[in-house]
Amino acid sequence: VTRPEALTFGITLAFFSVMTLGILVNWFAGAFLAFTIFFYVVIYTMGLKRWTAQNIVIGGAAGALPPVVAWVAATGSLSIEPLLLFLIIFFWTPPHFWALALFCSDDYARAGVPMLPNAAGPDATRLQILLYTVVLVAVAFLPWPLGYFDVVYGLTSLVLGGGMLALAGNVDRHRGGSLAL
Fold first, then answer.
1. How far apart are CA 160 and CA 78, in angstroms?
2. Dihedral sign for Cα atoms in the order 171, 97, 100, 55
3. 8 Å CB contact between 73 and 65
4. Cα–Cα distance for residue pair 94/165, rounded to 1 Å
5. Cα first-last separation, the chain
6. What does the angle CA 168 – CA 55 – CA 104 come to, to the nearest 5 degrees?
7. Neighbour-count burial for 122-133, b at 16+ CB within 10 Å, e otherwise
8. What is the pLDDT of residues 129-175, one digit of tens each?
9. Per-residue pLDDT for 181 more than 50?
């Protein structure tokens, strides 16, 4: 597939997906979908992915928008629930990808993608993984005290969040050394 063919195919799919959602569901959801596609393709992929070590944070925002689109499609409105899900996905993305990037930093360097381990070093990346995980655990817990879920969600969130925090702490403790989970 040539670049012009790929571009034409992508634009065609984007156009018809936005039009289909707008016509068959609602134009608010169609507009959110159009923004999500634009943000992912233009802002993240074309604009910032190869220019900043914060590419994963920006990509996390792009990747966290689809549940908001789905909520708007289902309800025709925006509320706190999809925004909480957006925040959970957003804060999960950097620690997830940076942990992988610690193992694949040479591949990213060869591809010209400035991942955090290459730009700031493995130790700074480990600290960022820990800090983002702390925020993630707090944000993932929020739906329970806000009354959106029951005690099962709250306790599950705390246990799983505590497990992820322990793993992030383990990653952070291995500064300057090899990583063994």
1. 28
2. negative
3. no
4. 14
5. 40
6. 55
7. beebbbbbbebb
8. 999 999 999 999 999 999 999 999 999 999 999 999 999 999 999 87
9. no
Rg of the chain over Cα atoms, rounded to whole angstroms, equals 19
pTM score: 0.88
- The residue behind tokens 């959602």 is 21
CA distances from 56 to 6, 17, 100, 111, 136 (A): 24, 25, 12, 15, 15
Q: How far is CA 9 from CA 14, 119, 122, 149, 179, in A?
A: 9, 34, 38, 42, 42
Distance CA 88, CA 140 (A): 6
Residue type at 18 in one-letter notation: V
Give the whole-angstrom CA distance, residue 168 versus residue 179. Answer: 11
Residue type, 42: V
